[in-house]
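seq/struct pair 1
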Amino acid sequence: MTSDQIRLVQESWAKVVPIADTAADLFYNKLFEDAPQLRSLFLDIADQKKKLVMLDVAVAGLSDVGSLIPVVESLGQRHARYGVKEADYGTIADALLWTRSATRGMMSSRPPKPPSTRSSPAPWSTRASKLPRKKN
């Protein structure tokens, strides 16, 4: 990611934080709608919604990926122990990007641009595009 992309992601994430509860509700509703089999991995959804703020660590760490990698690897190992499969990360990324789009109007007085009118991919999708996607 370029330094401009990192800045855009961090600025955008800062706008999500005040609406974190709503964003978490939208995210988990979308995730379970798209992948109901993942619901069984989340025993305490209220507690899990609080953990979604772990994204703060990842977003803040984009400026120093070297220190972020061990944190993300550890998180990935924990998720593997919980039963998350590699293929699930694409579905999770899709739900996260959908949530970002769905909350855009809550974070700004400007209406969001439809995806078809954007001149380049959103920085949020730069890393997510490298994740495996669910097969339709």
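seq/struct pair 2
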Amino acid sequence: MVPAPVFTYYSHCVHRGNTTMKNTALLAVALVTLAVSGCAASLVYDSGRSWKQQECYKIPDQYERQRCLKSAAMSYDEYRKTVAQEQAR
């Protein structure tokens, strides 16, 4: 059996260390989330763009298909610039 003062001191140290570890882990998760969020938007856009290109190939009319593929070829950076210009109006 452990004497009360030692147990109290020991549990205080564990509690303090545990809180610090939780705070550090929370900070790490927050930083990773912020770093990945920019990439995630680009990945979502690119996957949608790939889907749209696949759908364009299903269009029988060559002129319409080319027009669809041209609009689907816009990169994420071009898309962001276009959206920013439209919002500025």
